Amino acid sequence: MKLIIVGGGASGLMAAIAAARTMKHSEDITLIESGAKPGKKILNTGNGHCNMTNERALPMAYFSDDAKLLDDVMARFSYRDTLDFFNEIGIPAISRDGYYYPKNREAAAVRDALVSEVQRLGVRVVSNSKIIKAEKNPDCFVLTAESGREFRADRVILTTGGMAAPKTGSDGSGYNLAMDLGHSIEQPLPGLVALTAAEFWVKNLAGVRLEGTVTLVVDGIRRRSQQGEIQLTDYGISGIPIFQLSGDAVDALSAGKKVAIQLNFWDNKTETDILFALKMRCKARPDWESGELLRGVVPNKCIPTLLNLAKIDLHVPCKTITVSSLTKLAKNLSQLTFTINGAKDFESAQITRGGVPLAEIDRNLQSKITPGLYFAGELLNVDGPCGGYNLQWAWTSGHEAGLAAAK
Ligand SMILES: Cc1cc2nc3c(=O)[nH]c(=O)nc-3n(C[C@H](O)[C@H](O)[C@H](O)COP(=O)(O)OP(=O)(O)OC[C@H]3O[C@@H](n4cnc5c(N)ncnc54)[C@H](O)[C@@H]3O)c2cc1C
Fold this sequence. Notes:
- The chain is of the alpha+beta class and 407 residues long.
- It folds into 2 domains: 3-190 and 352-406, FAD/NAD(P)-binding domain (3-Layer(bba) Sandwich), CATH 3.50.50; 194-344, no CATH class.
- Helix content is 32%, strand content 25%.
- The chain has a 6-stranded antiparallel barrel. Strands 7-2-1-11-20 form a 5-stranded parallel sheet, sandwiched between helices.
- Helix 1 links the parallel strand 1 (3-6) and strand 2.
- Helix 8 packs across helix 11.
């Protein structure tokens, strides 16, 4: 039985290892990768540290079109199995509040350990070979590479990823292969991505990083909040808390809804508490210039914009600021509103939402449409939050597809 895995990312490497540990003749397994070496994206994960899994990576944390199937698959290879697996191939992990990283904090160690294990098991790796066409004949699958070279196999696992960070190889070509073999594709959208804002003043805040709380507001209703390091940019707003809200924001925008992000600069205090604090500061230092009122509270670069939005001149003494201006300032410090008009593109997105629907595969990740075809990783319509969840899905689905396809 010949097995081909198309795509040497996290899920493809895991699928190759699981299959090679199950099949008698691992030389019958071929891993085809369009890039020069498998696992390029892994190097970029977790800012080069690779947040490889998370103790909260449970099915309910993910979005998919079939929660029951996701439950079933994830129960068979959990974050604990991931930790055991990596420990066994020489990568012990450390936890930072439930977020797991390789002990040496180097993503390259994760990639290298996976590639070494694939080689040790005797899997044939064909690099620099992009598959552009897939067919199912009565007796086998025929995969055609860009070069014209043909590969034949009895079973195929597609692990080509989505469209996020296309420079790492995941350029969306896998969707065509899935469609060649009879599958549909839920519209791919950028996920875990920065959001763009309409306000002219965002440019003035570019480069600022601050600890804050952001709240997603859809059609005027506050949906949910996230806390952490926020990055203000010349196009809008970014950072992990924004990534976590970006999926709902993009969905709401595509449904034609009005989307805003409100930023709280001051320990998530209410407008009333902030107004009180500002009044106290004015009372204590009536001769301070207005700019000094916010010194130490918000990043310096934000002060002129915040004062300007509250119609307060930069250099007037605090004692001259009117209550209505102070109230406006307090409001903006508790909920500065960014009108969201879009998201950044796949180049800067961490993941792709959408892909091959789970409705079209069975519990072994095998196609219900084309028997002998399996899927794993981001190519499937499953996505999780930032923080080790998406790699966990790649490990889980890669492992389960590899096992099943090898049997
Ligand atoms: C900057 C960044 C940081 C991230 N950090 C984290 C993190 O810390 N923790 C976390 O959980 N997740 C993180 N993610 C997400 C995570 O990396 C992905 O969800 C995961 O790598 C998906 O694995 P995959 O195997 O499905 O796809 P990919 O890793 O994208 O692999 C697909 C592979 O298939 C190859 N390929 C594509 N098409 C073809 C073709 N036609 N023929 C042959 N080969 C093909 C590609 O070259 C690629 O090597 C991050 C993503 C990015 C972009």
